[in-house]
Amino acid sequence: MELFNSCVVLLTFLVNVNCIMWNLEPNTQKCLKEELQQNVPVIGEFEVSQAPGQTIDYVVTDSKGHILAKRQDISKGKFSFNTESYDTYEICFISHVPPNHRGITQEVSLVTKHGVETKNYDAYGEAAQLKPIEKELKRLEDLSYAIVQDFAIMRKREEEMRDTNESTNTRVLYFSIFSMCCLLGLATWQVLYLRRYFKAKKLIE
């Protein structure tokens, strides 16, 4: 039982949950970026403090500018989307203040979850008639699988970076050899040219 509790605590620290709160100045925007893998479900919950005459919009886009979620004049709510490919995804909150209106700072809070944490294990446990311990074990199984997948992705990235470094080192070596050959050739040509020049001027024999 102690081992089970230790696993629960360990995997809890590895959960993909982000919570952030900030002050959004009038007529400005705040964007948050994160790299995500392909086919990853993402859900977010936001809340904005009210300010008379002011509105805040949010928009979720990828690096290509495709809009995945968007809503205007928000106060409190949720959004969700699935990633289509490995990419950098951006969530922007934009403040709008009418002309000739003195704006005030608004407080924005955002909680995002992706991957395993987007699953509702309570509903799943009720549908499958699982006991609490079975439901928790299913959750830990999914978390363990997600962690293994993350390590596999990191290993793949490390291999790609190593291959890139080795390729770059090889190209730098060849370029250095080529540069040395060019310098030696140029130095030889200068010596021969100066020798012919001095002989033509009869400065040397």
Automatic annotation (TrEMBL):
Residues 29-139 form the GOLD domain. One of its GO terms (cellular component) is membrane. It is a single-pass type I membrane protein. The keyword DNA repair does not apply. It comes from the Eukaryota. Belongs to the EMP24/GP25L family. This is GOLD domain-containing protein. It comes from Exocentrus adspersus. The lineage of its organism: Eukaryota, Metazoa, Ecdysozoa, Arthropoda, Hexapoda.
